[in-house]
């Protein structure tokens, strides 16, 4: 489930044109945030994104897998086409909610 720091740095650098990028280690893998929205789960040096209808056409030829046992199926990003990656993440970001505040 672990990722190399080089892989996480590569993913974050690829996404940098989209705004503020940060990663957070979680359960052996990483979560990658774009402008404070969780967009990627990274495990085993693969980047997984939610299977949402808004990106289905863009990801029609993508591999599908689960980042960890028990997780929902997700698309696996192929980083050979940076423009496509940025378009997919931008579209996904537009359709994801901000995380709910933990302060009550």
Describe this structure in words.
With 104 residues, this protein is α+β, with helices and mostly antiparallel strands. Helices cover 24% and strands 29% of the residues. It contains two helices and six strands; from the N terminus they run H-E-E-E-E-E-E-H. The chain has a six-stranded antiparallel β-sheet with strand order 1-2-3-4-6-5. The longest helix has 14 residues, at 82-95.
SSE diagram, text form:
Blueprint: H1 5-15, E1 21-26, E2 29-34, E3 37-43, E4 46-50, E5 63-65, E6 74-76, H2 82-95
Antiparallel strand pairs: 1-2, 2-3, 3-4, 4-6, 5-6
Main features:
104 residues, alpha+beta, six-stranded antiparallel β-sheet, 24% helix
Structure annotation, total helices:
2
- Report how far the terminal alpha carbons are from each other: 33 Å
In which range does the helix fraction lie? 10-25%
Rg, Å, rounded: 13 Å
Strand order of the largest sheet: 1-2-3-4-6-5
CA-based shape: globular
Series of H and E elements = HEEEEEEH
On the 0 to 100 scale, the average pLDDT is 91
Give a short account of the largest sheet: 6 strands, antiparallel
Q: By helix and strand content, what is the structural category?
A: alpha+beta
- Strands, total number: 6
Strand content: 25-35%
User: Low-confidence stretches at least 5 residues in length (pLDDT < 50)?
Assistant: none
């Amino acid at each position: 489930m672990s990722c190399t720091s080089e892989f996480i740095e590569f993913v974050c650098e690829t996404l940098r044109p989209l705004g503020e990028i940060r990663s957070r280690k979680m359960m052996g893998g990483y979560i990658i945030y774009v402008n404070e929205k969780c967009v990627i789960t990274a495990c085993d040096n693969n980047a997984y994104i939610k299977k949402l209808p808004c990106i289905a056409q863009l990801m029609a030829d993508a591999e599908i897998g689960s980042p960890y046992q028990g997780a929902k199926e997700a698309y696996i990003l192929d980083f050979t086409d940076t423009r496509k990656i940025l378009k997919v993440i931008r579209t996904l970001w537009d359709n994801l909610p901000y995380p709910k505040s933990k302060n009550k």
